[in-house]
Amino acid sequence: PKPDPYWLQTFFGFAPEEALTQPDWGHCGVLSPLLANVCLDEFDKWMDEKIEEFYKPSKSDVVGGEDGIEQGNTSWPEFVPTSGPDKTRKVDYIRFGGHFLIGVRGPRADAAVIRKQLIEFCDQRFRIKLDNESLPIEHITKGIMFLDHVLCRRVVYPTLRYTATGGKIISEKGVGTLLSVTASLKQCIRQFRKLEFLKGDREPDPQPCFRMFHATQAHTNLQMNKLLTTMAEWYRYADNRKKVVNFCSYIIRGSLAKLYAAKYKLRSRAKVYKIASRNLSRPLKDKKGQSPEYTNLLRMGLVDSVDGLQYTRMSMVPDPDYTPLPSGWRPDHEKFLLEYIKLTDQQTLEEQRSCIREEGLITPQDHISMLVWSYKKNAVLLPSSKESDVQESIEDLGSDTDELNNKELGHGGHQGFPQPTEMS
């Protein structure tokens, strides 16, 4: 197998701590996360039942209402009252491989009950012994690290407007919380230091990326742009997405500037930025200048164009994605698998065929079968290839013999042969 490209190897270095402690399935290797999803599918369904069991909506809380319909101040869809009886109780659940996180909006007693039931379920179904130490209960105000993201809450003081009895509009200040998901900048710096992209803690100093020393400027920029695009997608849901991605771009840009300064003997990053611009899109060349001008080579198609680095300014980084997932959301790969399983069912095929007949349609396979059968039924029988070749050769031989005889008869008198004369 071919080795992974450099940008992908670098991104693998940013894998969260949970990815390094996946369950060991022997010689299965990269199949371990897939096997974990297969084995823990029953656990996911059990958690879905618990989510429905612990859901207790409140009429005045915008998180929930009667029949799950949001009520109250819908302009703040994630606003949650800090205390009081008007707080909706619910449970959230997310899993990555063998690591999961359960969020309980409600009293600590609900979290303790869920933990006790979870320990009993894992013991009876999976023969896994869990204890309270492996399943700690922590308050969200402390900040919970999961997949290199810190989950915490942010206190807000919105102005709540509602219509009272009699049609009077009342405005009052409220106190509530919003769920905040932020990317861990410390973890990002730690991973960059492990990959030898920088050194120092308080003031990170980028280090030259000498692994790309023998690559061209266009190829190097292309590899790093792929890394930055993947990083921007990794921190898609973080509140500080702009800050973290712009910091990653600063580290990579500084690392490449030092690399180009050493490669082209420019001595400093300032000279590299002066020649190649801020995003390193202008071509660099050796001081000797023995090679033709870059524009001429580019016009002739002998070199690749140099793409500048992305996200060199914070305004170029996309905003965080706050779009909520719809109810019953499934990832694309799971949809494809479910569709494949459904198509392999014989009953599904019969239902599709009956539906096609009712609509008066025809499948491509049946259409091709009709064309083939029509050709076989209406085509004229032709002689085989061997018989036709023999017949053509005989006809050609006969025509050549007749032509030769005609030539002999036409020119015989000129050669002195006696010709027959009519006797009287």
Automatic annotation (TrEMBL):
Region feature Disordered, mapped onto this chain: 384-424
Tree of life domain: Eukaryota
Residue ranges that the Swiss-Prot or TrEMBL entry lists as coiled coil: none
Domain X domain boundaries: 181-277
GO biological process: mRNA processing
GO cellular component, one term: cytoplasm
Composition bias type Acidic residues, residue spans: 390-403
UniProt-recorded name of the protein: Domain X domain-containing protein
